[in-house]
Amino acid sequence: MSNRNEMPAIPLEKLRFAQKDERLHDVKFETKPIGYFKDAWLRFRNNKSAVVAAVLIVLLLLFALIVPLISNYDVNFRDGFYKTVLPKNPALSGLGIWDGFKKQRETQAGYDYYTSIGIETGREVVRNISEPTVDATGLTYYSMEVDSYSKVGFIYSNLTLDEYRALQQYQDETGIQVIYPLQNTFLTNYVMGNMGANLWYKLANPAPTSDGLALYDENGKHIPNYMLSANASQADYKSSRIAGDDGGADGQSWYVYAQKNQSGYKVRVDYYEFFKFKNGFEPVFLFGTNIYGQDIFTCLASGARLSFLLAISVSLINFFIGAMYGAVEGYYGGTTDILMERISDVLSAVPFLVVVTLFKMHLAAKVGALVSLLFAYVMTGWVGMAARVRMQFYRFKGQEYILAARTLGAKDRRLIFKHIFPNAIGTIITGSVLSIPGVIFSESTLSYLGIISLETSSMTSIGTMLANGQGYLSTFPHIILFPSLFISILMISFNLFGNGLRDAFNPSLRGADE
Amino acid sequence: MRTMGKYIVKRILLMFLTMFIIMTICFILIKMLPLPAVREMGRDVNLILAKREAMGYSKPLLVQYFLLLKNVFLHWDWGVGEQMYEALNVWDVLVQKLPYTVLVNLYSILMAIPLGLVFGIYAALKKNRWQDHVVSTLVVVFISVPSYVYAFIVQYLFCYKLGWFPLTIESLESTAFFSGRMLVSMMPAILSLGFGVIAGLTRYTRAELSEVLTSEFMLLARTKGLTKAQATSRHALRNAMVVILPMIIGEFIGILGGSLIIEKIFAIPGVGSLYVSAVNVRDYNFFMALTVFYTFIGLASSIVIDISYGIIDPRIRMGSKK
What is the largest CA-CA distance in chain A? Predict the structure, then answer.
């Protein structure tokens, strides 16, 4: 350790004045000042889970806003044949996952039925067929995976003359076979699906008591049972024909593709291709469909949009009402405070369920279910916000800087808005954000219970979707899976985001990194 | 103790005043709605009509209100079911439904309290280590996910796939109330309700206990020579309990209210189902009684929580000026 007192002698000429002519004054900071919000942002940024949650919320919000605009489907879309089809993602179909196949256990008749659809349409309907097993009663069973889209197979459709012509023209232009030959009618009770439209093959036992087993030829193939006619263009059919339809050995036996009836033409169409013809796009339901044949992907986005709309409006309105009410209570105190507190006491004691019910009974018919629900949330929802603001006002109004401002002649309004409110804004924003998941949750609960019904032609709600799927939980869990997943992710994200905001705005955490 | 007694009396009086106001508002709002006609149910129609006459339905509103208050306060008579449970006493039906709701919720809380406390204490003792982070993350997830999502998972997994539990709960005709079969059939509902309660209690316990653990008397206790376990159980836990116990007590009052959505999913014939059907068929007598019932539960649990603070920890003087 050197001796500090011992100063080395510095020659005088080496010394000079630091500021001889310049005047001393404050220097402007070269760094940018860190304001209240910037400070909060810096702290928020360090909270990884909150940032991830915020990104997720933005993604879910975008999903809710964009999907209804770009989707092929809307809430009104209901397909009577593609009910409860499984989720299918064209990008992943090749990998054998998320491709609409469902594992099923089928009898021999079911095996014949599903394979026949595959043979006639040329699409993969069944795969991974197991070896047959025989159970105690002597019935043969197969376990297999069945494509929930292609298994619909064929339907009978009655077309008008214009539609019939348009469909033939579509076939000629695209080269896709949509109309398939009609079959000879069976006298059987075994029809399986679509009023027997899929039974194009001969049955081993064509009697009414048929068990549905197919009759096989010597090569183990289904034997066609198409209706025949001497006229090649029976019922004005002039478009492409299926393979094997060559007029037969005598040139007189052509397959019949349509039947004329009172309203137009009865045809048998491949529903997958017919869907494309009708709607102009392939039947692909990313999240599958529900029991009404609605696209769950679009409905979910639409329901989410409704939830967001409701929750954000409620939290904004409650923000304003609660802030005003709480500010007046907290700032003036005394008798004003006591009286106003009693009002909010009574309001907060009313069970929310009862408020919703009463508003629904009184207003739903007049202004609509959504608006009545909004009123119900606003009616009691602001109480919590008011209490929070009141507390902040009590905290700040006695402090010296307020006294100083008052001494300088600041009016009440200025004190409230300029001096106290900005200090309380962090707590208030956090409270507002944290109230959003609560609204979304209770909205879905209420619409699930059927206490309110938000289902209209252009809107649906997550709760309604869940309620629709509950009876099919064992057979079609996908109907409930996606809405549940969505709401769970949303709730977790909002809670994490809200907690992050609270930590960021709470100055008591300043400097402490936990 | 005198201030305490005065405080309790004051709170209870305020509670009744609040309930009275809410009942009045509810009465006015119901009377503004059209009265639904009584459905044809044979003999019962005349009974209901006679009851309506006795309740003064053809008289002015004020008389009706007076009659309602008289019936309720003197005879505890909330009227009869008009659209459902025709001609049955509303209160009797409510009391008959209550045991299901209470039992399901009681079981789930009894299951949740020990687990919640254990997880919370564990996380607090391991604060800022990986065990704490795992527990805290799970807590956020379990608190956020709505209870009906658990219900779907439990129903799908345990009822359909594994077949451990029946789909709906046993009826009282087939088995006794406190039997094992009843408990097993209630298990899905108990589990679905339990997750949220466990997570809530864990978070609460962790927060309280970790605050107490860093306080200076804990340092003193260790300096005195107590082991960490001794100090934690004798000093930290007891002080943390001052805040945790009232919350648990509040939960116990809250179980009367039950959970509507769980009751609906598992077809439990409890109070929640009663409320939902009363709203759907617009039976105003049931609606009125259940409104007052739910209001009472909400208010009573907050009073009990406040009072229990004072009883558990005599240092807290409820209602005193300072």
Answer: 130
Tokens describing residue A247: 């007029």
| Partners of residue B264 in chain A, C-beta under 8 Å | 448-449
Separation CA A36–CA A30 (nearest Å): 19
Residue A444 vs residue B79, higher pLDDT: A444
Q: What is the pLDDT of residue A3?
A: 59
CA separation for the pair B271, B255 (Å, rounded): 11
In chain A, what residues touch B261 (CB-CB under 8 Å)?
445, 448-449
Instruction: Find the mean pLDDT for residues A280-292.
Output: 86
Provide the 3-class DSSP secondary structure of residue A39: helix
Q: Give CA angle at A403 (A400, A405), nearest 5°.
A: 110
- Tokens, residue A262: 């009172």
Q: In this predicted model, what pLDDT tens digit does every residue of A40-93 receive, in sequence order? A: 888 888 888 899 999 999 999 999 999 888 888 888 888 888 888 888 888 777
Report the C-alpha gap between B33 and A376 in whole angstroms: 17
Q: Which residues contact A221 (CB under 8 A, 6 or more apart)?
A: A119
Tell me what the mean pLDDT of segment A244-250 comes to.
74
CA distance A263 to chain B (A): 44
Record the tokens describing residue A348, joined without a space: 């907060």
Tell me the per-residue pLDDT of A287-328, one tens digit each, with 9 for 90 and over.
888 888 888 999 999 999 999 999 999 999 999 999 999 999
Nearest to A108 by CA among A150, A148, A149, A137: A137
Q: What CA–CA distance (Å, rounded) separates A236 from B188? A: 62
Q: B275: distance to nearest CA of chain A, Å?
A: 10
Rounded distance, CA B306 to CA B247, Å?
Answer: 10
How distant, in Å, are the alpha carbons of B125, B204, B252, B290 from that of B112?
A: 20, 13, 12, 27
Mean pLDDT value across residues A497-503: 87
d(CA B302, CA B14): 12
- Within 13 Å, how many C-alpha atoms sit on residue A433's CB side? 23
Pick among B279, B286, B303 to test the A interface (most A CBs inside 10 A): B279
B162 in reach of chain A (CB within 8 A): no
The helix or strand, by DSSP H or E, that contains position A145, with its residue range, turns out to be: strand A140-147
3-state secondary structure B31-90: HCCCCCCCCCCCCHHHHHHHHHHHCCCCCCHHHHHHHHHHHHHHHCCCCEECCCCECCEH
Instruction: For residue A203, give the amino acid letter.
Output: L
pLDDT in tens, A364-395: 888 888 899 999 999 888 998 999 889 888 88
For chain B, which ranges sit under pLDDT 50? Answer: 321-322
SS3 state at A97: coil
Greatest mean pLDDT among A14-18, A100-104, A299-303, A471-475: A299-303
Name residues 3-62 of chain B within 8 A of A (Cβ). Answer: 14, 18-19, 21-22, 25-26, 29, 32-33
How far is Cα A45 from Cα A40, in angstroms, rounded to an integer? 9
3-class SS string, B165-206: CCCCCCCCCCCCCCCHHHHHHHHHHHHHHHHHHHHHHHHHHH
Residues in A touching B280 (Cβ below 8 Å): 450-451
In A, which residues are within 8 Å of B282 by CB distance?
361
Measured distance CA(A44)–CA(A510) in Å, rounded: 12
**Chain B: nearest CA to A367, how far in angstroms?**
16
Rounded Cα gap, residues A321 and A458, in angstroms: 31
